[in-house]
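Postdoc handover notes: sequence design on the structure in folder B. Input tokens:
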């Protein structure tokens, strides 16, 4: 029994006591009336205090409790709110009940179930056990999901239920995995095969020092290419996997630019490319300095590889609102519009022959994309065929450091 009811009962008891005391009083009628009034006041106080204390303890008055919905209404709500497409099909193959999600997935069109679903329902009624059926849209040009997998279950009395799920993400992930494995196998096979052939050539030319040196140089080149590919695959795997970034620290943008320029200087000199740099800006970001340097190096190396000799590559930085941008611009061959969305894909090359000639792995821009994404930033591309390209790294600025108070002064 809750506190409100207890106190109310106490009030009723007070009334009873007061009435009895009034009639039992021997010193006059007025004394009994006073007792009744006192008891009535106790009743009112008991009811008020009981209600207030009951509310404080989470007790809801009976009149405030909404009526419970009917079981059928609750089932209808669940049927409509689920993320799966649900359809109840009768013996004739008609949809007697379907939620909105089933229509979105294309399981029901114009109040008629998909023919594949109807056939599966007939099989379930015959076998009495659930079966799976692929209900992916036959026309991939529509807006419906690319892949839909359903399970049909018997309900008895000739009724069956179709439970459809959008599996597009899983299908795309599996396709990406297959493509990645195929690409890695192909990319590894090329340098490994080249090293094997060159090693045989060295053995055949053992008596010719000049040929041994020539083939040996090519072996070193292919070995370096193979090593770079493995290194970048490991880096990309870490960036795209569950492994998070190490503890972030304050990174000076000017230091990232200076270090990246130092690492790419030899490549620029070998290709007879001049790198033009703007003035320092003194801005900082929160991040991993090694990864940011790697990303910028990849952009600069990419600009050098796709630029004609004696043309400049510029590196500039600027503040853009709450972010900082580092832009790498070349005057090279440029990128066609149909290729611009794909340049950040793994192993995609605008010019495969040129990339192989320069020792490119096809992973550099993919690494840039994931490094920026893991830092809360992005990489942007502007390009025009025959004019050149600009890749821009955009990173959120680090918040201002709080002032340090020492001895009462700032």
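Designed sequence:
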């Amino acid at each position: 029994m809750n506190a409100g009811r207890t106190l109310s009962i106490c009030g009723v008891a007070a009334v009873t006591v007061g009435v009895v005391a009034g009639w039992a009083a021997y010193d006059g009628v007025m004394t009994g009336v006073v007792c009744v009034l006192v008891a009535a006041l106790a009743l009112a106080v008991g009811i008020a205090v009981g209600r207030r204390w009951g509310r404080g303890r989470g007790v809801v008055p009976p009149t405030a409790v909404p009526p419970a919905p009917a079981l059928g209404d609750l089932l209808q709500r669940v049927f409509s709110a689920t993320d799966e497409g649900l359809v109840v099909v009768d013996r004739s193959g008609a949809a007697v009940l379907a939620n909105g999600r089933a229509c979105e997935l294309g399981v029901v069109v114009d109040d008629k179930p998909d023919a594949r679903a109807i056939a599966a329902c007939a099989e379930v009624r015959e076998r009495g056990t659930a079966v799976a059926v692929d209900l992916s849209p036959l026309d991939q040009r529509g807006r419906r999901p690319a892949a839909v997998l359903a399970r049909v279950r018997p309900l008895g009395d000739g009724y069956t239920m179709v439970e459809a799920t959008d599996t597009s993400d899983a299908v795309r992930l599996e396709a990406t995995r297959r493509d990645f494995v195929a690409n890695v196998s192909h990319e590894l096979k090329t340098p490994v095969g080249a090293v094997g052939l060159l090693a045989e050539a060295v053995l055949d030319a053992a008596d010719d020092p000049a040929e041994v040196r020539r083939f040996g140089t090519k072996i070193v080149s292919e070995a370096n290419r193979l090593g770079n590919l493995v290194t970048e695959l490991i880096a990309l795997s870490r960036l795209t996997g569950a492994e998070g970034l190490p503890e972030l620290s304050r990174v000076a943008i000017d230091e990232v630019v200076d270090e990246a320029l130092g690492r790419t200087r030899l490549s620029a000199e070998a290709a007879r490319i001049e790198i033009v740099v703007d003035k320092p800006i003194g801005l900082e970001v929160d991040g991993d300095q090694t990864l940011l340097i790697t990303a910028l190096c990849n952009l600069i190396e990419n600009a050098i590889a796709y630029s004609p000799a004696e043309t400049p590559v510029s590196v500039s930085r600027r503040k853009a609102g709450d972010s900082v941008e580092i832009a790498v611009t070349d005057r090279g061959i440029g990128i066609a519009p149909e290729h611009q969305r794909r340049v950040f894909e793994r192993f995609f090359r605008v010019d495969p022959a040129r990339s192989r000639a320069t020792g490119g792995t096809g992973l550099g821009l993919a690494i840039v994309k994931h490094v920026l994404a893991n830092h809360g930033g992005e990489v942007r591309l502007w390009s025009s065929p025959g004019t050149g390209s600009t890749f821009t790294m955009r990173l959120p600025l680090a918040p201002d450091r709080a002032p340090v108070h020492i001895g009462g002064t700032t």
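Context for whoever picks this up: The CA atoms of residues 141 and 357 lie 39 Å apart. Don't rerun without checking with the PI first.
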